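Justification of resources, computational component.

The compute hours requested in this renewal are based largely on the per-chain cost of generating structure records like the one below. Each record pairs the submitted sequence with a full structure-token output. That output is archived, and it is also reused by downstream analysis tasks.
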Amino acid sequence: MKSPPPKKRGRPKNKELTARRREQILDVAAGVFASHGYRGTDVQLVADETGVGKGTVYRYFPSKRDLFLATVDRGMRRLKAAIDVATGDTEDGLDRMTGAVMAYLAFFDANPEIVELFIQERAEFKGRKKPTYFESHDANVGPWKKDLRVLVSQGRIRGIPVRRITDVVGDLLYGTMFTNHIAGRRGSFERQALDILDVVFLGILSSRERADRGLSRNRE
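The structure output for this chain reads:
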């Protein structure tokens, strides 16, 4: 009795090509969602602008919801990568903060569509426990807290809880990003970053006024 012929093996997947196609779809989807809104976007439109079939998009992303959330997540990954590039070779903690603020504002200046995605995510997925932006922030804030603890121990910044610092600076940048997008930015993002850093690092009160108000250097 003859044994059945061996099954032909399918062509192995090219992981690099697969990853590249996935990124291409997400890149197109960001622009489409930003332009048409979540509800106004059909997956077919994303497929057409990517130059693939609709089924191909669904092979990578089972639903429009999955595609949208993956697009937002990619935006945050790109933001982190931009900040990492800007600060990766910087040894001093304060210089890293400076580079991070500059890179943050530069990223959203160059990618306003990502801000639109944040707005849509909040409007369309209110039931989510935490928006993608804050999930990413919480996952990546650890090294910055470590930097701040070192700076406190060196006496270079005030002895206040590092969580307080990351919360205040994070909220300031988050609000600035939305204000720039919705109301329009006045002047260059470089000038804006320097203004933010000036106020954050030096405050607005003179040394005399701080003393008159009893604001000690190590106020908790």
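The chain has a mean pLDDT of 91. The CA atoms of residues 93 and 129 lie 32 Å apart.
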